[in-house]
Amino acid sequence: MSDGLQALLSNSIARKTIMGVTGTMLMGFAVLHLIGNIQLLFPDGGAAFNQYGAMLHSLGEFFYLMEIGLFGSILVHAYMGVMVTRQSADARPIGYAVDADAGGPSMKNKASMNMIRTGAILFAFLVVHLYSIRFGEPWVIADSKALAGTLLAQNHPDMLDLAGLTITLFQNPLYVLFYVVCMAALGAHLRHGFWSAFQSLGLNHPKFMPAIQASAVGVAAVLAVGFLLLPVWVFLDPLGLYTELVR
In terms of residue numbers, what domain contains 221? Predict the structure, then answer.
């Protein structure tokens, strides 16, 4: 590593700026991913969700570049987060006397004090999720009971049956519990990370910070609830939409 790059990465402002940029990128990905996942709620035997997956795979090499960029952003974000936390700890060797919300104008709260922990939970979720969905058994539409004989199965027999795979995973209570815990961690991480990104990027004008903080709570709640609602809904299956999709 060159001396200039090393000096840049050791600068606290540069680290926080990189965290803000990568965090904003990852949050944008989460929003798009949630929009795609919502299609699993459609009562169409998983056709819309599978077509969504097929659209992503049709991007070819660009899709793999997106995955590499996403994973790279996660690693950089995590590394910078650890470095910033260590730097803050070194500057405060005694630490906080009380592990609780500071209240008032302070940004210290349970979410901010547990960013490393919630980040570690999210990284563990990413590993399990990728192993289960991205690199799991390659189920195809031709083997789907729900879509057998449909035009989708006739025209695209080799299309991945991501809906069947996902729904089968969501019938496992342990997987659903793991998913819900991780999405709760996502909400806590975003609650602090959203407004912190504005601060890191120099957009934290006192006039707008109350609105930004309120928005952080709203965005964190929408994304966390949106993601954890899906496995719970599929597991409970109150409308009986998913029984025939399970393998």
Answer: 13-89+116-245
